[in-house]
């Protein structure tokens, strides 16, 4: 039996954390009134009933909440505030390292540049970091500090209504192949992220590819990720969430993915569509071996998967157990704290209760989060930070008697 207090106290990470999907509902209500954004309800309780639910009918139903969140995040002030509050919420449950990801181009308009979008989010996270790391337990060395990184998300596809920026780029290139335009936008993001990181020394640690997998392959964004790769920006890709193993393979081989977001369908050989793959089961086994051998970490989001995959009727059927059996590197994440109504602590508890995760496996999963993070410091600084985390985790285990379990 793992006490809830123990799960709260151990140092944790969240490597798959969307900014716009993790806004406090109370803040959403307040910002919507401030900026004149119409919501389906004007109270937190009303929004939880109509938008941010426990269960969703489908993926489109799940994604509906993002449009409201993005609509209120169109100023530096709101972006900074939401980033600050997100860091505080994580700190309150013992999360010591987060990588906050979002698509900055969704927030670019005539009065807000991509540069200022990233600077605003960084200000919020940095403010929370400074407040936490000046507390006496951290200053005295009794507890590890809080750290963060920023991941910029490119989108596999978009339409004119996505944002002012995306509408403009589609109109300018209206006669071009849309898939080429999507790749062009990703390339602009990749170049800008590297430039802004270098200019301001921001902890922009990685680039991600998000959005609808089917019909919008990762290969369309090859140049953008090759540019990021050449400029030492790490890569994580949403893959195998709504499409089969081939999507994961493409993310690794075409986009140089260091980590995979979700990877839910890694072992689903029946989802393979490429007719040239003569033995789908062997393909899946080889792919899993490839991932394991290179320690490509899978960012697992249990609650989110349960809410967006109708065929997943209960968590005990999640493919996490197959991943663990194959000794893959995994780390549990929230995906969207508000839209999925979850926390890192809740995800760990669900893994214990529904997937029979034991103490050693829990420890490994948590530590993998720190080891496979895109930590913004040097390699030696990261090693020292991880060592402090492991020592503190061990201390918490002793405190709760979990070291004897």
CATH superfamily: Metal-dependent hydrolases
CATH topology: TIM Barrel
CATH class: Alpha Beta
The structure class reads: alpha/beta
- List low-pLDDT spans: none
Spatial order of strands in the largest sheet:
1-2-3-4-5-6-7-8
Tally of structural domains: 1
Shape-level CATH architecture: Alpha-Beta Barrel
Number of helices: 17
Cα end-to-end separation: 9 Å
Q: Count the E strands.
A: 8
Please state roughly what percent of the residues sit in beta strands, choosing from under 5%, 5-15%, 15-25%, 25-35%, 35-45% or over 45%.
5-15%
Q: Helicity range of the residues?
A: 40-55%
Q: Roughly how many Å is the radius of gyration? A: 20 Å
Shape, please?
Answer: globular
Please tell me the overall pLDDT.
95
Descriptive overview:
- It is a single chain.
- By secondary structure, the chain is α/β, with parallel strands linked by helices.
- The protein has one domain: Alpha-Beta Barrel (TIM Barrel), CATH 3.20.20.
- The protein is built from 17 helices and 8 strands.
- The chain has an 8-stranded parallel beta sheet with strand order 1-2-3-4-5-6-7-8.
- It is globular and about 65 Å long.
- The termini are close together.
- The mean pLDDT is 95.
List the helices and strands and how they pair.
Layout: H1 4-9, E1 12-18, H2 25-35, H3 44-50, H4 59-71, H5 76-92, E2 95-102, H6 114-133, H7 136-139, E3 147-155, H8 164-172, H9 178-200, E4 204-210, H10 222-230, E5 234-239, H11 245-255, E6 259-262, H12 280-293, E7 297-300, H13 302-308, H14 320-325, E8 330-332, H15 344-355, H16 359-371, H17 379-400
Parallel strand pairs: 1-2, 2-3, 3-4, 4-5, 5-6, 6-7, 7-8
């Amino acid at each position: 039996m793992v006490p809830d207090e123990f799960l709260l106290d151990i140092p944790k990470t969240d490597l798959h954390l969307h900014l716009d999907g993790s806004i406090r509902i109370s803040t959403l209500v307040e910002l919507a009134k401030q900026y004149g954004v119409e919501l389906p309800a004007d109270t937190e309780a009303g929004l939880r009933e109509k938008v941010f639910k426990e269960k969703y009918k489908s993926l489109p139903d799940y994604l509906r909440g993002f449009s409201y969140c993005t609509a209120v995040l169109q100023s530096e002030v709101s972006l900074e505030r939401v980033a600050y509050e997100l860091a505080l919420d994580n700190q309150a449950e013992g999360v010591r390292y987060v990588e906050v990801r979002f698509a900055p181009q969704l927030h670019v308009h005539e009065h807000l540049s991509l540069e200022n979008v990233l600077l605003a989010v960084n200000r919020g996270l940095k403010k929370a970091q400074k407040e936490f790391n000046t507390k006496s337990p951290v200053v005295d060395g009794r507890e590890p500090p809080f750290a963060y990184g920023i991941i910029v998300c490119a989108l596999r596809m978009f339409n004119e209504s996505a944002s002012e920026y995306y509408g403009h780029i589609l109109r300018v290139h209206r006669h071009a192949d849309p898939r080429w335009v999507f790749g062009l936008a990703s390339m602009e993001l990749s170049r800008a992220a590297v430039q802004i990181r270098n200019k301001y020394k921001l902890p922009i640690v990685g680039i991600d590819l998000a959005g609808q997998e089917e019909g919008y392959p990762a290969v369309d964004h090859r140049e953008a990720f090759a540019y990021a790769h050449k400029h030492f920006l790490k890569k994580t890709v949403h893959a195998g969430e709504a499409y089969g193993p081939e999507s994961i393979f493409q993310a690794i081989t075409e986009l140089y993915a260091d980590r995979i977001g979700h990877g839910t369908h890694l072992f689903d050989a029946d989802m393979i569509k490429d007719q040239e793959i003569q033995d789908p089961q062997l393909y899946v086994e080889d792919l899993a071996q490839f991932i394991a051998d290179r320690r490509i970490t899978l960012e697992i989001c249990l609650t989110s998967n349960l809410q967006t995959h109708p065929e997943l009727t209960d968590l005990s059927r999640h493919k996490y157990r197959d991943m663990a059996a194959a000794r893959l590197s995994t780390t549990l994440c929230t995906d969207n704290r508000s839209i999925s109504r979850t926390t890192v602590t809740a995800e760990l508890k669900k893994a214990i209760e529904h997937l029979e995760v034991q103490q050693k496996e829990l420890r490994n999963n948590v530590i993998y989060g720190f080891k496979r993070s895109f930590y913004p410091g040097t390699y030696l600084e990261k090693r020292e930070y991880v060592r402090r985390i492991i020592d503190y985790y061990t201390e918490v285990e002793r405190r709760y008697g979990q070291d004897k379990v």
